[in-house]
Amino acid sequence: MKDKFYQYIQDLQDSITSKLEAIDGKAKFQQDIWKRPEGGGGRTRVIENGTIFEKGGVNISGVHGKLPKSMQAYFKVGDVDFFACGLSLVIHPKSPMVPTVHANWRYFEMYDANGKIIDQWFGGGQDLTPYYLFEEDATHFHQTCKTACDNHNPEFYTTYKKRCDEYFYNAHRNEGRGIGGLFFDYCKATKGMTMENWYNFVTEVGNSFLEAYVPIVEKRKDLPYTKTHRDWQEIRRGRYVEFNLVHDKGTLFGLKTNGRIESILMSLPPHVQWVYDHHPKAGSEEEKLIDVLKNPKEWVEAP
């Protein structure tokens, strides 16, 4: 399973980066192959200062070795070996009219002293962080997520949409990071779902990413914007940074397993503002976004 999924994320990285390069038309992803001293490594691809994309990363990694003490306590296990692989991406467009997007698909195994698998699971998801809310874009993104889910279980979309709203939440701000999407973790074999079933589900979600995001980029990339729009984008990016550094489990896992700092922090945007006690004007487009972040909406009808 680990070999099959690692091959899948390598292929997915290729398809996503080539498509985003084609849309940008100027910037190319710079590739960085790295190795982890304790075992494994990865392939980081970063795009910067493009026509459309100000900064973005589409990274894959496959790491293995002894599970660090800090993570042993987290998973409530003893001295075990582990393997983890995944694709993680964050794209920060230049235009405030185009949303930031994040996605991650991952697989994890733990082994006993004889190398036998004692636990394994999939996780991942994809979510959208707009700066200006176009409701039809939110509906499109969520409908694409729902279609991928419905092919496997009619309850998946409702369950994982709710988890996404709960997970990507800045509790210290009482607001969501964005308008959500899907978030799933610890997807383990059950009577109803084998690991092969989970593989098919996670890869279908991964395959839906470009369909979910690219049409939104194409629709919004040429809209005019002002410095006021850009300032708002940079203020909201500050909230994005706060989530990633304060709450995100993936960042924590990377830092505690001696992951590669440049790859872990590639999700941070290049230009950000923190304005003291900032509040959008009443009735403004900016306030409209905040209202949705504080009160998550149902963008598509459940079955």
Tally of DSSP helical segments: 9
Report the order of strands and helices.
HEEEHEEEHHEEEHHHHH
- Chain-averaged pLDDT: 94
> What's the β-strand tally?
9
Name its key features.
9 helices; two-stranded antiparallel sheet; single chain; 7-stranded antiparallel sheet; 303 residues; alpha+beta
Write the layout of secondary structure elements.
Blueprint: H1 2-24, E1 30-35, E2 40-48, E3 53-66, H2 69-75, E4 81-93, E5 100-111, E6 117-129, H3 135-150, H4 156-167, E7 169-170, E8 175-176, E9 180-187, H5 195-220, H6 227-246, H7 249-256, H8 261-264, H9 285-294
Antiparallel strand pairs: 1-2, 2-3, 3-4, 4-5, 5-6, 6-9, 7-8
Helix pairs in contact: 1-5, 3-5
Give a short summary of the structure.
With 303 residues, the protein is of the alpha+beta class. The chain has helices spanning 2-24, 69-75, 135-150, 156-167, 195-220, 227-246, 249-256, 261-264, 285-294, and strands at residues 30-35, 40-48, 53-66, 81-93, 100-111, 117-129, 169-170, 175-176, 180-187.
How would you describe the overall organization of this protein?
The two termini are 32 Å apart. 42% of the residues lie in helices and 26% in strands. The protein is α+β, with helices and mostly antiparallel strands and 303 residues long. A hairpin with a 4-residue loop joins strand 1 (30-35) and strand 2 (40-48). The longest helix has 26 residues, at 195-220. The protein is built from 9 helices and 9 strands.
